[in-house]
């Protein structure tokens, strides 16, 4: 194919991958639970063995984040994920209810298309490969061009481990020549049954517009509220640990800190003690000019960067040992760029009078990342319940956004695809798991005699047609004609329409009477 242009070759490659993936999906759909588990164990082991090298490869290729943290994400998306899903029932009979006479049966969806972001390229491949196989499906990946090499390598690691354990050829595929043409081809080709889109808003929107089922995620803009009853030292430690994890590349990471006037001094003091640097207004403006372009769109050059890299580029001096840069904000939206998502080591900082004002501020901040995640640090359970009403699918309590939102430090399903619900434009509001990649068929036994169902129903009063109803069809027509006459003087054109409608109603009534 060397005589064909790159874009044509990439499209043909996508078609070939889709065809082989569909064949593999049909084959693995017949596998037993034991066969699936053997494949998953092999994949988890391979993921663990390659966690560090792929973390280093991803950090080097993209320039985002920290290799060690990326390695841990790979560990979470392989070893920890396997331990969590290994006993999950996703094939065959899921449940049987003898009382209702119903049986739920799982059926794989088929071939899945996985769109991979540059911020979490290898861990996302591990996660989507494991969840696809667990639910009896095949998967083909479309990598981000800036992370194509590490994405491909991660897919190869998963593929080779799966096939070595008995999976069919073509079970895990990955585009080697990424282009818009190949991505569009996969999204719209008949072989792909569903799309899991993890990436920018444009890509997610395209996935939902492809004409087939899609699971997409929206942008995050998670506020972290340190309520007055919180253990401030622990809250600050947790927030910094989360925001510096892979330098803030996880979309559930904190984007803003909210404290109250009553604990403002303690929060500021603790942030400074633990490596937070409060920028001046001038310094904040310089950093914002670097981080954002075209309004509040994040500049890819500073995604997942250390505060030292950002400060040096902005020409500001920061203390040695600084872990996060903090900019005080007085508002939300246009004119306050730090109130938007920042997948890097920069935080906005707000002070409010009380929890009610914190509620309002949280809602305003979440409008720029609606449906995703927020966190609250408190010892007051009543406040937690009140904050559960916020437009976020994950309300995290006394834990970090990065680790908590992905299920690493909480009881949530371990996932690198976090649903944002309908308010965030997503078809799911949960952490995506294998259960989202199966169709559930229901077998339903008859419980009542269809021939006598009417007369044997004690809750149905009009059984023989003799019961007088409050409003008969003829009464309805008569009432309609009276209204029509009353309106005649004011709206002649409307009368013409009403006459047609009345005639139609009469025809329907006659038809109901069999005339």
TrEMBL record:
Top-rank EC class of the record's enzyme: oxidoreductase
Give the source's domain of life in one word. Bacteria
What InterPro entries would the database entry show?
A: Acetaldehyde_DH_acetylating (IPR013357), Ald_DH/histidinol_DH (IPR016161), Ald_DH_C (IPR016163), Ald_DH_N (IPR016162), Aldehyde_DH_dom (IPR015590)
State whether keyword Glycoprotein applies.
Answer: no
Transmembrane annotation, as ranges: none
Matching Gene3D superfamilies: Aldehyde Dehydrogenase, Chain A, domain 1 (3.40.605.10), Aldehyde Dehydrogenase, Chain A, domain 2 (3.40.309.10)
Provide the E.C. number(s) assigned to this enzyme: 1.2.1.10
- Could you confirm whether the keyword Oxidoreductase appears in this record? yes
Arranged from A to Z, the UniProt key words for this protein are: Oxidoreductase
Task: Provide a Gene Ontology MF annotation, just one.
Answer: acetaldehyde dehydrogenase (acetylating) activity
Limits of the Aldehyde dehydrogenase domain: 14-274
Q: What is the designated name of this protein?
A: Acetaldehyde dehydrogenase (Acetylating)
Query: Species name for this entry?
Result: Lacrimispora xylanolytica
Q: What is the lineage of its organism?
A: Bacteria, Bacillati, Bacillota, Clostridia, Lachnospirales
